[in-house]
């Protein structure tokens, strides 16, 4: 099983860049790396996904080194509205191809004025 | 609009009663999931289903039951055997189990009174 490890919490200030790193030492060849954002009393929302190198969209960037044992979610110039919990997921395969979508505890990001 | 709908948003149950939480999606997704979230905690997987008439236990299935008679629907029953059912319940569906992307409903907050 590809377990993930993230910092429990992080603090930042408006306008700064925030980097959240996730460790996944046992990532399998077919696994993708996906990040979700969750606000209180809401369901998680997909942010970005990647397999290797770098992926960028309008919300964030995802950096994945060559060994794929970790990944870094980068949020440019955060605002107060980026205060949320961020989850890193790696594909969790059962024999037969089932994907259990296991969420860890996530990283609680607090953005301050 | 396409999406995933959970109902009701708030639910109160007396101890000893079974209660069923609804989850419907019109995204034509094959995979569906149920999670439980306690205050300040991450998401824990209860049950998941990859196809109609098939479902698998997640990490905390005891005291819960599900059915998947239709592709669009994945109801969760919280039985009286669940000793601590008060929690926030989230349903999700996935378009592609290979890539982990999932869409979540807005959740049902269950309170035992």
What topology emerges from the helices and strands here?
The complex is a heterodimer of chains A (113) and B (113).
Chain A: E1 9-13, E2 18-23, E3 33-38, E4 45-50, E5 53-56, E6 61-64, E7 70-75, E8 84-90, E9 93-94, E10 98-99, E11 107-112
Parallel strand pairs in A: 1-11
Antiparallel strand pairs in A: 2-7, 3-4, 3-8, 5-6, 6-7, 8-11, 9-10
Chain B: E1 4-7, E2 10-13, E3 19-25, E4 31-37, E5 43-51, E6 54-57, E7 64-66, E8 76-78, E9 87-94, E10 102-104, E11 108-112
Parallel strand pairs in B: 2-11
Antiparallel strand pairs in B: 1-3, 3-8, 4-5, 4-9, 5-6, 7-8, 9-10, 9-11
Mean residue pLDDT of chain B: 92
- Name the quaternary structure: heterodimer
Quote the average pLDDT of chain A: 90
Percent in helix of chain B: under 10%
pLDDT < 50 runs, ≥5 residues of chain B: none
Strand content of chain A: over 45%
How many helix segments of chain B? Answer: 0
Strand content of chain B: over 45%
The portion of residues assigned to helices of chain A is under 10%
Structural class of chain B: mainly beta
Brief sketch in words of this structure:
The complex is a heterodimer of chains A (113) and B (113). Chain A is built from no helices and eleven strands.
Structural commentary:
- The complex is a heterodimer of chains A (113) and B (113).
- Chain A contains no helices and 11 strands.
- With 113 residues, chain A is mostly beta strands.
- In chain B, 0% of the residues lie in helices and 50% in strands.
- In chain B, β4 and β5 form a beta hairpin.
- Chain B is globular.
- The termini of chain B are far apart.
- The relative contact order of chain B is 0.33.
- The mean pLDDT of chain B is 92.
- The interface between A and B is medium-sized, with 26 and 29 residues.
């Amino acid at each position: 099983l590809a377990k993930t490890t993230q910092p429990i919490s992080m603090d930042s200030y408006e306008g700064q860049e925030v980097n959240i790193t996730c460790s996944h030492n046992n990532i399998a060849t077919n696994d993708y790396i996906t990040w979700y954002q969750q606000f209180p009393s809401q369901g998680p929302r997909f942010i970005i996904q990647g397999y290797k190198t770098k992926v960028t969209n309008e919300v964030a960037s995802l950096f994945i080194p060559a060994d794929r044992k970790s990944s870094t979610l980068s949020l440019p110039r955060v605002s107060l509205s980026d205060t949320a919990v961020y989850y890193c997921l790696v594909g969790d395969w059962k024999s037969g191809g089932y994907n259990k979508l296991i969420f860890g505890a996530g990283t609680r990001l607090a953005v301050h004025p | 609009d396409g999406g995933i709908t959970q109902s009701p948003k708030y639910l109160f149950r007396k101890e000893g009663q079974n209660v069923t939480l609804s989850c419907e999606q019109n995204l034509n997704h094959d995979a569906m999931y149920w999670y439980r979230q306690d205050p300040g905690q991450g998401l824990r997987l209860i049950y998941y289903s990859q196809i109609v008439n098939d479902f698998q236990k997640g990490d905390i299935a005891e005291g819960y039951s599900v059915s998947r008679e239709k592709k669009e629907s994945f109801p969760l029953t919280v039985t009286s055997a669940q000793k601590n059912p008060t929690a926030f319940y989230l349903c999700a569906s996935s378009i592609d189990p290979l890539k982990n992307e999932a869409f979540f409903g807005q959740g049902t907050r269950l309170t035992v009174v």
